[in-house]
Automatic annotation (TrEMBL):
Catalytic subunit of the NatB complex which catalyzes acetylation of the N-terminal methionine residues of peptides beginning with Met-Asp, Met-Glu, Met-Asn and Met-Gln. Proteins with cell cycle functions are overrepresented in the pool of NatB substrates. Required for maintaining the structure and function of actomyosin fibers and for proper cellular migration. Belongs to the acetyltransferase family. ARD1 subfamily. This is N-alpha-acetyltransferase 20. Residues 1-145 form the N-acetyltransferase domain. PANTHER family: N-ALPHA-ACETYLTRANSFERASE 20. It comes from Panthera leo (Lion). It catalyses: N-terminal L-methionyl-L-aspartyl-[protein] + acetyl-CoA = N-terminal N(alpha)-acetyl-L-methionyl-L-aspartyl-[protein] + CoA + H(+); N-terminal L-methionyl-L-glutamyl-[protein] + acetyl-CoA = N-terminal N(alpha)-acetyl-L-methionyl-L-glutamyl-[protein] + CoA + H(+); N-terminal L-methionyl-L-glutaminyl-[protein] + acetyl-CoA = N-terminal N(alpha)-acetyl-L-methionyl-L-glutaminyl-[protein] + CoA + H(+); N-terminal L-methionyl-L-asparaginyl-[protein] + acetyl-CoA = N-terminal N(alpha)-acetyl-L-methionyl-L-asparaginyl-[protein] + CoA + H(+).
Length: 166
């Protein structure tokens, strides 16, 4: 899984093994793999629940979503997102959020299709392997049923810097 997942696509962030193990240990319910009948990895999603309940910021977060090129446009990503949203609903989250490269047109459009909207832009959220700033992110959100007034998705008027997001 790890050797393949890191290379499903250049648009999928590659993390070290301790990072994945941390997710498996803390949020196993948020780690979902789509496997073909032959055992082949078709795609996966990993996420977590975080944020303050008191401040109505308790939410589900999508950390990574990737579908192998040969299994795309079959509705797999949409299904994985639906599962993550269901888990977040059950946990009483107010919304689901994710970060995506502003240049990743396919993913941005897909998330819009799935009901997400841009909440804010995070300047230079992504960095290159040499540590230099690389690209901005959209922080996209979708309100869950607990946020009856959809307050959590009202877009911020100004972009923020990575150090301003918790
Ligand atoms: C983005 C990605 C996860 C989509 O996976 P997928 O399983 O092919 O997506 P789905 O089949 O569930 O598509 C759902 C909807 O998104 C849109 N969509 C997905 N891929 C698209 C494409 N290449 N072109 C246009 N629309 C697309 C469509 O509206 C699609 O619905 P439709 O097929 O009924 O028209 C996949 O392309 C991928 O792994 N990309 C590289 C990694 C990445 O960018 N991850 C997200 C980073 S946050």
């Amino acid at each position: 899984f790890l050797s393949r997942s890191g290379n499903l696509d250049p648009l999928t962030e590659t993390y070290g093994i301790p990072f994945y193990l941390q997710y498996l240990a803390h949020w196993p319910e948020y780690f979902i793999v789509a496997e073909a009948p032959g055992g082949e990895l078709m795609g996966y999603i990993m996420g977590k629940a975080e944020g303050s309940v008191a401040r109505e910021e308790w939410h589900g977060h999508v950390t990574a979503l990737s579908v192998a090129p040969e299994f795309r446009r079959l509705g797999l990503a949409a299904k994985l997102m639906e599962l993550l949203e269901e888990i977040s609903e059950r946990k009483g989250g107010f919304f689901v959020d994710l970060f995506v490269r502003v240049s990743n047109q396919v993913a941005v459009n897909m998330y819009k299709q799935l009901g997400y909207s841009v909440y804010r832009t995070v300047i230079e959220y992504y960095s290159a392997s040499n540590g230099e700033p690389d690209e901005d992110a959209y922080d996209m959100r979708k309100a869950l049923s607990r946020d009856t007034e959809k307050k959590s998705i009202i877009p911020l008027p100004h972009p923020v810097r990575p150090e301003d997001i918790e």
